[in-house]
Amino acid sequence: MDNAVKQNKVQSLFLGLQHVLAMYSGGVLVPLLIGTALKFSAAQMAYLISVDILMTGVATLLQLKRTPLTGIAMPVVLGSAIQSVSPLINIGSTLGIGAMYGATISAGIFVFLIGGLFAKLRAYFPPVVTGSLITVIGFTLIPVALLNWGGGDASAKSYGDLSNLLVGLVTIIIILGFMLFAKGFVKAIAILLGIILGTVFAAFLGKVSLEPVASAAWVHVPTPFFLAVPTFHTSAIITMIVIVLTSMIESTGVYFALADLTGRKLSAHDMANGYRAEGLGVILSGIFNTFPYSTFSQNVGVVRLSGVKTKQPIYFAAIILIIIGLLPKFGALATIIPSAVLGGAMFVMFGTIGVQGVNILRHVNFDSEKNLVIAALSIGGGIGVTVYPQFFQHLPQTIQLIVTNSVVVTSILAVVLNMILNGKINDDGEQVMDGKIVEKGLAQ
Predict the structure, then answer these.
(1) Backbone angles phi and psi of 396, in degrees to 5
(2) Do 138 and 353 contact (CB within 8 A), yes or no?
(3) What angle do CA 81, 12, 130 make, to 5 degrees?
């Protein structure tokens, strides 16, 4: 193999590892929360986390590889959908563990079947909508970064401890140092280097333990229906369909964010392939007794900061995730990274996603009060429900699942307001109101 090709593959491997570390804590959070709430045994938790990571890699591969029906073929990484935690806990505690997986499989089939229809909504996402959506995706993730930076548990006495603040700050300084002063490949892996060196710094402060690595098993083989055979209940299925619809809306925002970064114009066929790939991933998650997947917005920040917009690093990321899922000792290595280190890295990544949305909004004509109203209300609504989700606490639980999701609220407000005030953008980038072309050249 040519030396240049070898070097390229090694670089892609490290870039892939960077993607894995960026999403790992979020990826294992969902099984940890659900398993703990449902009082899973240590053996069940070990299986749950391993298979979740493995299937994350499989689901990511489904998105990367284009087929006639599946795969958006962009640098996307999939992970467990955080919005599924509360409803799955409710389903598992009332109807049994099997009902969680029956509802998940059913929801995956639903996503696969409606992918083509849902993709037709692409015409309702002009720059004022996508810019608002991407801005909210980034800035509403900042509290997650701060939660991790402070120690990961806001109720703990050690939360916000000076050592945590110092570790996160050092991580940020390292990342910014590489971003501003390094060149080429070293600059591209600034996040990875920040996480590694931040962890080394934390180890000197006594904040790193290797015990999880020592106690982890070497090999773990996934087995269909290992935890429970799926059962099917109408109420549980409807609940999970609502959840996967919110995930599809979130994924739409991520698709557009990556399209903006990579300079690709998405077609309805591209979008449909992406949704169907996610649907397959959700079906597999139910079969192997893990939880629904959606496209991770965290990794958009990695693409933005690294400047590497090809799929090859994501292929390596998917392979790494599969290996980690099969070899728990390797997976345990990622768990020794302190929350404060991850929080510092997240703070940089999520901020850049938000600014990317602002950059898209720069191209929107805000001399038009209509566009100003669309952006103001949709961004304000998305950020507002993030800060005060209890604003809707007296609504039915199913509705709360929708209206307390910042991305969903922003999407609904932006799309509906744009339809009312501006009309629809057709596939040729033309503004259409009452069947007439009003303005041209507005497509992404």
Answers:
(1) -55, 150
(2) yes
(3) 45
